[in-house]
């Protein structure tokens, strides 16, 4: 007899299963376009030079100890993070309407925010884009939401945003529904609304009394400019919205495994901030008690030092420029080979990912025949492309589609 006999095997998580398959593949030209992590021109993981500098400084700082952080995390970290998102002189900050909570990376920030909304504001319905990052649904349902709905986002024919479908679905959403919005560099499509489209989206969200929950996993990574990538969130704030925004430092600082993130909360009434903070404190206390310090100290060290901050911006530029260059090269190669279809979407899209337009069978063919690992949806991570494999990848796409 075992208590566990009835436990059913759960489905594998596609992106992790793909990486395992890639690691076990002995084919010399294999390429991993699955995982959403930056790689150098040599295809290697990259620790940002500014992170190495910060870590050395922290290692030599004898005043630091290993005591618990407060439940809501390192105060300087969360306030610098919220400032980075909203902008130095945001009225929400000057009027004490906004604050941050250090969380376990972007996923943790989504979870803490969703727990609070489900348990304290009794929210049940949430909307996410079709398609979206594979974890939104699980995080929100695990947090206590009951009704997962999609809004239209991607138009497979135009390989662009389905803004009419998007607005129509928002228009039909019930009052109070929580809307997850990708702040920039939409994962998986790499396709963001224009500023004009964001204004339309904001207007429907306001009219229909919906709650915007931004997911900002790529600030700086999309355009290389931190302010530009925060435009949508800042626009909503200027329009007087109350909102949540989950921020991750996994990509823009390369701190994937440090689990360093922040939940920014923007409210209308400063006098209600202490009550909300106290309830989020209980939410966190009941889940993991308090967050780890290492990543938060690295980020704070860099954001509070002008010289290091500028170096970080350069490091972000290095990453975003390499990705933009790879987009260009891939498109050029595909066009040079005369690969069926148009390929402008590869360079129109931004951020880490590209929705190639390959269907499930074609994507599986890429894995099986060419040892090029990509998601079934046709999503590829541009970070896996390098000057030495881009030709091989283009040739393989060409063979798959010809
Ligand atoms: N949200 C989106 C859209 C993402 O793409 C990711 C990571 O891939 C995350 C959130 C969360 O990442 P992490 O929890 O590693 O910060």
From TrEMBL:
It catalyses: (2S)-2-aminobutanoate + 2-oxoglutarate = 2-oxobutanoate + L-glutamate; L-aspartate + 2-oxoglutarate = oxaloacetate + L-glutamate; 3-sulfino-L-alanine + 2-oxoglutarate = 3-sulfinopyruvate + L-glutamate; L-cysteine + 2-oxoglutarate = 2-oxo-3-sulfanylpropanoate + L-glutamate. Pfam families: Aminotran_1_2. The keyword Signal does not apply. InterPro entries: Aminotransferase_I/II_large (IPR004839), Asp_trans (IPR000796), PyrdxlP-dep_Trfase (IPR015424), PyrdxlP-dep_Trfase_major (IPR015421), PyrdxlP-dep_Trfase_small (IPR015422). One of its GO terms (biological process) is aspartate biosynthetic process. It comes from Rhynchophorus ferrugineus (Red palm weevil). This is Aspartate aminotransferase, cytoplasmic. It is found in: Cytoplasm. Belongs to the class-I pyridoxal-phosphate-dependent aminotransferase family. It comes from the Eukaryota. Its cofactor is pyridoxal 5'-phosphate. Its main location: cytoplasm. Its EC number is 2.6.1.1, 2.6.1.3. SUPFAM superfamilies: PLP-dependent transferases. It is an enzyme of class 2 (transferase). GO terms for molecular function: L-aspartate:2-oxoglutarate aminotransferase activity; L-cysteine transaminase activity; pyridoxal phosphate binding.
């Amino acid at each position: 007899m075992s208590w566990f006999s009835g436990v059913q095997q759960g489905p594998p998580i596609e992106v992790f299963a793909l990486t395992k398959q890639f690691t076990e593949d002995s084919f010399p030209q294999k390429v991993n376009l699955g995982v959403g992590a930056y790689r150098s021109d040599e295809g290697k993981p990259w620790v940002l030079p500014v992170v190495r500098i910060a870590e050395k400084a922290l290692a030599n700082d004898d005043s630091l100890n290993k005591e618990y952080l407060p439940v809501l995390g390192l105060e300087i970290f969360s306030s610098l993070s919220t400032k980075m998102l909203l902008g130095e002189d945001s009225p929400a900050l000057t009027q004490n309407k906004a604050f941050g909570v250090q969380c376990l990376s972007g996923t943790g920030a989504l979870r803490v925010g969703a727990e609070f909304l489900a348990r304290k504001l009794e929210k049940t319905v949430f909307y996410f884009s079709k398609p979206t990052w594979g974890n939104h649904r699980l995080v929100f349902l695990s947090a206590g939401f009951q009704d997962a709905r999609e809004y239209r986002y991607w138009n497979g024919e135009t390989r662009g945003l389905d803004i009419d479908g998007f607005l129509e679905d928002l228009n039909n959403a019930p009052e109070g529904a929580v809307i997850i919005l990708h702040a920039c560099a939409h994962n998986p499509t790499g396709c963001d609304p224009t500023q004009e489209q964001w204004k339309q989206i904001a207007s429907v969200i306001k009219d229909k009394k919906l709650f915007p929950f931004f997911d900002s996993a790529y600030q700086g990574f999309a355009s290389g400019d931190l302010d530009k990538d925060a435009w949508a969130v800042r626009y909503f704030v200027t329009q007087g919205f109350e909102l949540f925004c989950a921020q991750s430092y996994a990509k823009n600082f390369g701190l994937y495994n440090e689990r360093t993130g922040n939940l920014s909360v923007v409210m209308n009434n400063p006098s209600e901030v202490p009550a909300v903070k106290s309830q989020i404190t209980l939410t966190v206390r009941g889940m993991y008690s308090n967050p780890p310090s290492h990543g938060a100290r690295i980020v704070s060290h860099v954001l509070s030092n002008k010289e290091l901050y500028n170096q970080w911006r350069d490091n972000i530029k290095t990453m975003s420029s390499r990705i933009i260059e790879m987009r260009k090269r891939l498109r050029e190669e595909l066009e040079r080979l005369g690969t069926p279809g148009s390929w402008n979407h590869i360079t129109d899209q931004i951020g880490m990912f590209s929705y190639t337009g390959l269907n499930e069978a074609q994507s599986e063919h890429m894995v099986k025949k060419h040892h090029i690992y990509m998601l079934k949806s046709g999503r590829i991570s541009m970070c896996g492309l390098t000057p030495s494999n881009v030709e091989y990848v283009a040739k393989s796409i060409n063979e798959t589609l010809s």
